[in-house]
Here is the input.
Amino acid sequence: MLVAAGVGSTALAASGGGSGQAHPEDRLSAAITAMQDGAYADASRRLEALVRDEPNFRLANLLYGHVLALRSGARIGSPLADDEDPGMRDLLAEYHQRGSTRRALPPPERVPAPLMMLSEDIRHALVVDLQNGRAYLLEQDDGQLRVIRNLYAGIGRSGFGKQSEGDLRTPIGVYRISGWLSDEQLPPLYGAGALPLNYPNSWDRALGRTGSGIWLHGVPPETYVRAPRSSEGCVTFSNADLLSLKQSLAIGSTPVVLVDQLDWVAPSTLAEDRAALLDAIEQWRSHVSALDTEAYLDLYADDFRSDDGLSKTAFSDYKRRVNAGKRRVEIGITDLSLFAYPGEAGLVVAQFVQHEVSDNAVSSVRKDQYWRRQSDGRWQIVRELNR
Here is the structure.
């Protein structure tokens, strides 16, 4: 269970991956700070070393030219001035995005608001702040979360909030990695490889969202990163960062949360809603096990729809018929996680494994159960789908 986090500069500095050399992101940030402080010689030295190590880091090359121009004292135009060239506009967009988020680090002892609870078997979670183009890899250890990677990320050309095939937007939601595609299997556009996501997920399907092929992937070998908004809806990373993430993102289990607006909160802020939801889920489990059909159905909202499109009335009739023929049911729940669903006020998805033993069946299924807080404060199920 998520109870606390230690998020500070030490954890964030770990983005270099433990090689002994600072991550290129941190090196660029230090150079920009030196430039803004007027320490052009220091900035020049830092950028010279960075472009030597990462010759395809286009923004670093641009800034290196800029600081050399500043040091020369010559009356020449700044490379950072607005330009009609599309390539320059992309670099300027990257520069401004990095500048606006460079110091926006999560406060100490804060966690991403969507991560209400992670099951004990989940070691890592990836949260992508789509608004600011940052990705945070978090590690869970003994119920506590800490940020171990803080990375630049590119998103869809038309922004985020995917609704349909071809809209060039990155989806908002809670996803999982469905596989790995190596660079040998892909065109150069995808760089070192790709981690496909399970878009559309159960909630996307319930809302009629279409499209496919949403991946976390790398970049062409001739560049370090892509522009902030340049993909067809995927999330892009530098090739080195993608390969580093691949070591931590477990296929089928690591949650990847794509957030339109990321809030960092104290763990205690999540405690009240988490406790209420855990109580509601336990009521659901115990009512099913007791064959108390009416109490069980009362936990479903009036606008509930099942995975196969049944309304609340049709679903209730079906459950009454099924339960009338049962004499014994025992329900167990394991691997429970809770996510406040991004972009949906008052909606939480509970993901768990449901184990059932009855007089005519023994089964285990993975379930997505979407709970919404109603106007009277009650939590009720609006969607329930087997994965």
Q: What stands out?
A: The chain has three domains: 17-101, 111-264, 267-386. The chain has a mean pLDDT of 89.
